[in-house]
Write a structure and sequence with these properties.
It contains five helices and ten strands. By secondary structure, the chain is α+β, with helices and mostly antiparallel strands.
C-alpha cells in the first residue's frame, strides 16, 4: 500500500448556491459536495478540512482545504478528475502536495476578506454584492472610524453567540475602504475571525456613516462586549468573499491564484 499523500486545494465558489462551507443537517454545502466528489474518485470516504467556515451565501476566492489519499494520482490528474464531479459553482484553482505537518485551518496565520457594497440596486448583482442603498454611505466618514478596529481586541460585540467559542480576542492588522464607480470595497485582514464578525464590522461602519456618529463610538461598541447589539446590524452575506488565506512560507511555499471581482 502506498503512503498517504496530503493534498491542499485552493477552491473558489459561488456561495449563493450553498448553505455555507461546512457539512450540516441542511444541503448542499461546499464541503459536502467536494467530499462526495472525492469519494467517487477514490472509492472510499474522504474527509476534507477547510481553512475556516463560510456562512450560507458567502463566497470564496481562496478557500484552502486539505485531505489525504493513497491513490497513484498526481495533483494535475486530481484537478482534472474533480472537474468532472463538481458543479460549475465550484472551481479548483490549485492543487498541491503538502507536508503532513500542514493543516488548512490550524496552520493559517492570517485570513483576508473582501466585502462589496453596491451603490445602486440592480437585480443582476443582488447575489454578489450587498444592497445597502437605503443607508448614507460616505467612504471618508468610514475611513475615520477604521483605526478604532485595528489591533487586538475582544470582539464579543461583533460576533454571533457560540457556546463552543470562549475566546473572542482577534487581532485585525488591516482594514480599508475604497470607492469605485459602482461600489464600495471594504478589505479586512486578521489572524482569526469569529462567526459573523466581518459582516457586523461592516454594519457598524455603515451605521457610523449613516447616523453621522463620532468615529470614537467604535471603541464604546467594542468595550460593551455584548452579543446583542441594536446600534448596528449584520451586513448581508451576499457581499462577503473569503479572499485569501496565508501560511508560513516554509510550510506552504505556493502561490495563490488571484481572482478579480470588481
Amino acid at each position: 500500500m502506498m503512503n498517504l499523500k496530503r493534498i491542499a486545494l485552493q477552491i473558489a465558489y459561488d456561495g449563493s448556491q450553498f448553505y455555507g462551507w461546512q457539512k450540516q443537517y441542511i444541503s448542499p454545502t461546499v464541503q459536502e459536495v467536494l467530499e462526495q466528489a472525492l469519494e467517487k474518485i477514490f472509492k472510499v470516504q474522504t474527509n476534507l478540512t477547510g481553512s475556516g467556515r463560510t456562512d450560507s451565501g458567502v463566497h470564496a476566492l481562496c478557500q484552502i482545504a486539505h485531505f489525504e489519499h493513497n491513490v497513484n494520482m498526481n495533483t494535475e490528474q486530481l484537478k482534472l478528475a474533480l472537474v468532472t464531479k463538481i458543479p460549475h459553482s465550484i472551481k479548483i484553482l490549485n492543487a498541491w502536495e503538502v507536508d503532513v505537518a500542514f493543516h488548512a485551518r490550524y496552520s493559517a496565520t492570517k485570513r483576508h476578506y473582501t466585502y462589496l457594497i453596491s451603490k445602486e440596486f440592480t437585480p443582476f448583482q443582488r447575489l454578489y454584492q450587498a444592497n445597502l442603498y437605503k443607508y448614507k454611505i460616505n467612504a471618508e466618514r468610514i475611513a475615520e472610524a477604521i483605526p478604532y478596529f485595528i489591533g487586538e481586541n475582544d470582539f464579543t460585540s461583533f460576533c454571533k453567540p457560540n457556546p463552543e467559542v470562549n475566546n473572542h480576542v482577534c487581532c485585525i492588522d488591516s482594514l480599508s475602504i475604497e470607492e469605485t464607480t459602482d461600489c464600495f470595497v471594504i478589505k479586512i485582514s486578521a489572524n482569526r475571525f469569529l462567526h459573523n464578525m466581518v459582516r457586523r464590522i461592516v454594519g457598524a461602519l455603515v451605521m457610523v456613516s449613516h447616523r453621522n456618529h463620532s468615529p470614537e463610538i467604535i471603541s464604546k461598541w467594542i468595550n460593551d462586549k455584548k452579543h446583542e447589539q441594536k446600534n448596528f446590524f449584520t451586513a448581508p452575506a451576499s457581499g462577503l468573499y473569503l479572499a485569501e488565506v496565508e501560511y508560513n512560507k516554509e510550510l506552504f511555499p505556493y502561490d495563490i491564484k488571484k481572482i478579480k471581482i470588481y
